[in-house]
Amino acid sequence: MALLELDDVSVTYRIAAGEVPAVRGVSLTLDAGTALGVAGESGSGKSTLAMALLRLLPRDARVGGRILLDGEDVLAMKWGRLRAVRWAEASIVFQGAQHGLNPVQRIGDQIAEPLLVHGLAKPDSARGRVAELLEQVGLPAWRARSYPHELSGGQRQRIMIAMALACSPRLIIADEPTTALDVMVQAQVLTLIKELLAERGISLIMISHDLSVLADVCDRLAVMYAGRVVEHGPSREVFHDPKHPYSAALAAAFPTVGDPVSRLAPKGLGGDPPDPMDLPPGCSFHPRCPVALDVCPTLDVELWPAGPERRAACVHVRPEKAEPAETTLEVS
Amino acid sequence: MTETQTPVEAVGTARPTLLEARDLHVGFPSRGRRARAVDGVDLAIGEGEIVALVGESGCGKTTLARTLLGLERPTSGSVLYGGTALEYGSKALKAYRREVQLVLQDPMGSLNPRQTVYEAVAEGPRIHGLPGEQEVVASALSRAGLRPPERFFLRYPHELSGGQRQRVVIAGALALEPKVLIADEPVASLDASVRGEILALLLRLRDELGLSALVVTHDLGLAWNIADRVAVMYLGRIVESGPVEQVLTAPRHPYTQALLSVLPESPERVVLTGEPPDPTRIPGGCRFHARCQVLASGRAAEAGVDGRCRAEPLAVLPAVPTAQAACHYAAAVD
């Protein structure tokens, strides 16, 4: 059963200069107990999409389509219901944990806050629950008395995860949870996330520009470019055998140490991401595409089947005269 | 200035040494204690060589880089450029900084948002009174891959993409035609697709201009992508160094082994636990012993070195280009 279903979701920011289409028709499904990685670079719409899931976007953003959480449309929820859903059913871990914590409040009080607000604990019982949460993220209970500046970056990120777990949500949305961290601390945090998924059956949407990290944690991967999903499938397959040239560029950006192909040969992608207010015609990736064909500047390819459980929006995967694919993606 | 013979040349390296740290120590007072951020480092960077300095936050790699730039003064030991000890008078430092330039991480933070690209790149040449400012700026921008350069002169940082901003920062360093670039996490804040482009630029600058570079990073993939040699730093010391192929495919120090094992794709992980290393409390014996997986698993005891791991400090690794590791266990089993 799908825990989360996105049906043709779009987000448009209205600014003085006009309308900025940040997310353009994304359809995805997340089954309970699975992890979905959303990859892409700055401006691909991946963080906007994550914020839209819990309606955390600013007022000038217009969200279209349907976002079904456990069958209930998030976009149609009343304010009170939305408040209950945030934290208790789905919570979000932002990038840059450093800035997410109040510097003058003790860690324990900050973790207890959502519990008290949602009436899930009384002030006297909250302390025990805080200790339990700290233990789950691998920190000693006495850390509840610490202030954020007394903790390292990795420990602060663990605190953010403890806060996200506080109300026992079924879904956690993590936006670049390890980006600012050292390799060893990143490994510790990723191990923690994987343990929480396995032990508590939590579902995860993780957002990153690092395909290798997403492939490591997630069951499935969706690669976004210019507001659209351009490739989707089982994560290891998308990482090791990408079908869309943009996914291939992202996968090659992080070399495998020991692989002679990448030795003294860093792989990048020329050009810059397109201006969402002035998208290239046809396939929006064609100006940067190393394998573009003559038709690409005029042909806007939708997601097509690209192997078992896989889709890619590229003319290279499209067999001649194939029937158009259904617009909704099935995620197993 | 005194002429000194560099020991590296005596050992015989493929490249003559350009920049060198010799028995370098840098300490700071820190919350009533003393942080030994750099605690005995010998490191040589050859002409046209790219060296990656790898380690976790707090290992002292940024302090080492700043000391090599003359931004920090060593507590003891010395920095040598072209075999001559660095002097800290303002005139000597100014001359030195034409030769050895810093490339900062986070271009959004290091560029002045109200300064045009032209002004940002022209700042160095103006301080040093270089003639033909406009040509200097244009040539630096085009060598950093911003072409045609005139198109970028009047742009502001916010009008550029992340990759373009990092190129402006690199152009600012190139404008003085330095011999050495010291880059602190040059791609950490950049998108995946841009990362490779900037690294390719650093490689091209080495090939075309013969630039040397010290790249400070926690990213071993970056070292694999562009460096000739890698030095792994832990708690103020270099614990393993050598050619990239050798150190990263057959690491001998347990710390290097652990760093490599946590990369995605690696078969068996060694996730080190415990608090991040604290340079105000450097343990006795081997400075890594408290977190060492080889000691904890009993393999060091089997090799009969566990007592030395806990009690006997290791000697400072010399500045030689060949592969070496500061580890009692590695020495015993080789």
UniProtKB/TrEMBL annotation, chain A:
Instruction: Tell where it localizes.
Output: Cell membrane
One GO MF annotation is:
ATP binding
Q: Which residues form the ABC transporter domain?
A: 4-251
**Cross-referenced SUPFAM superfamilies, in alphabetical order?**
P-loop containing nucleoside triphosphate hydrolases (SSF52540)
Task: Kindly give the InterPro entries that the UniProt entry links to this protein.
Answer: AAA+_ATPase, ABC_Ni/Peptide_Import, ABC_transporter-like_ATP-bd, ABC_transporter-like_CS, Oligopep_ABC_C, P-loop_NTPase
| UniProt keyword list | ATP-binding, Cell membrane, Membrane, Nucleotide-binding, Transport
Name the coiled-coil region(s).
none
Q: Which SMART domains match?
A: AAA (SM00382)
Query: What membrane topology does this protein have?
Result: Peripheral membrane protein
Q: Which NCBIfam families match?
A: oligo_HPY (TIGR01727)
The cross-references to PANTHER family, in alphabetical order and at most eight, read: DIPEPTIDE TRANSPORT ATP-BINDING PROTEIN DPPD (PTHR43297:SF2), OLIGOPEPTIDE TRANSPORT ATP-BINDING PROTEIN APPD (PTHR43297)
Q: Which family does it belong to?
A: Belongs to the ABC transporter superfamily.
Query: What is the protein name stated in its UniProt record?
Result: Peptide/nickel transport system ATP-binding protein
Q: What organism does the UniProt record list as the source?
A: Nonomuraea roseoviolacea subsp. carminata
From TrEMBL, chain B:
Q: Per UniProt, which keywords does this protein have?
A: ATP-binding, Nucleotide-binding, Transport
Q: Does the keyword ATP-binding feature in the UniProt annotation?
A: yes
Question: Which GO terms fall under molecular function for this chain's record?
Answer: ATP binding
Which residues belong to any copy of the ABC transporter domain? 19-260
What's the superkingdom here?
Bacteria
**UniProt cross-references to InterPro entries, sorted A to Z:** AAA+_ATPase, ABC_transp_ATP-bind, ABC_transporter-like_ATP-bd, ABC_transporter-like_CS, Oligopep_ABC_C, P-loop_NTPase
Q: Which SMART domains match?
A: AAA
- Which SUPFAM superfamilies does its entry note? P-loop containing nucleoside triphosphate hydrolases
Family, per entry: Belongs to the ABC transporter superfamily.
Tell me the protein's name. Peptide/nickel transport system ATP-binding protein
Name its species.
Nonomuraea roseoviolacea subsp. carminata
Q: Output the lineage of the source organism.
A: Bacteria, Bacillati, Actinomycetota, Actinomycetes, Streptosporangiales
